[in-house]
Amino acid sequence: MGCCSSKNADSKATRVNRWRSTGIVALRDSKLKTFPDDILDLDGSVRTLDLTHNRLVEIPMDISKLINLQRLVLADNLIERLPINLGKLQYLKVMTLDVNQISTLPDELGQLVRLEQFSISGNSLTHLPETIGSLRNLVLLNVSKNKLKFFPESIGSCFSLEELQANENSLEELPSSVCSLVNLKSLCLNSNNLKQIPSDLLTDCKALQNISLHNNPISMEQFQQMRGFQEFESRRRKKFDKQIDANVMISSKGLDEGVDL
Length: 261
What we know:
- The protein is α/β, with parallel strands linked by helices.
- The chain folds into two domains: about 25-100, Leucine-rich repeat, LRR (right-handed beta-alpha superhelix); about 130-260, Ribonuclease Inhibitor (Leucine-rich repeat, LRR (right-handed beta-alpha superhelix)), CATH 3.80.10.10.
- Helices cover about 20% and strands about 10% of the residues.
- The protein has six helices and ten strands; from the N terminus they run H-E-H-E-E-E-E-E-E-E-H-E-H-H-H-E.
- It has helices spanning about 1-20, 35-40, 200-205, 220-225, 230-245, 250-255, and strands spanning about 25, 50, 70-75, 95, 115-120, 140, 165, 185-190, 210, 260.
- It is elongated and about 65 Å long.
- About 25% of the residues are buried.
- Mean pLDDT is about 90; it is low at about 250-260.
């Protein structure tokens, strides 16, 4: 019995030492219901934390101890809310919270000023905080499969945003501020309630190469009559021509992806 306990202790110590030396904690599919204290005790040693596909209901306030955390992956859990202390993770660059039960985001989200990728698809969000506009380094935002009816005006301040995915929501309109997203390349809005999009979107978002509006009450004719459509179409075709020239395998559906209505 004592021998077995000793082996377990050694195994635990070995695991903690590995986490400390690599900076990577990966406990996928471990049936966890709470955050292991061993992780929180590592403080500044952890750079990547992946607890995908567990049974976590909450993120502890003490997560703020992981001051050097850069990647936080908590997809496929039972998390209902985010702690305000999350905003103290000042080095966080990637946060993945897909397939949880989150209905609101704290205003402190805006304190994650180094965040580059934020994915929270498959939750129950009804709105995004105005503070999301403080995420000036955000490149990818995925809020698909939620219950959003609108975006805050502040979304236009996410100047680095290149890809915005908001499929399967209840969006009825887009704020005019999205026209300020000059680096936006891909806008995915399938299965919403959009009857129109901002009239200056195609003229102001000169990097835009892909718009997907399938299953919305907006017609292809409406889209083609927008100012800047020809320029957008030229960028779209140029993008796919480059892929073909580089021998990238794409399907016929892929060729139509740029204007999916």
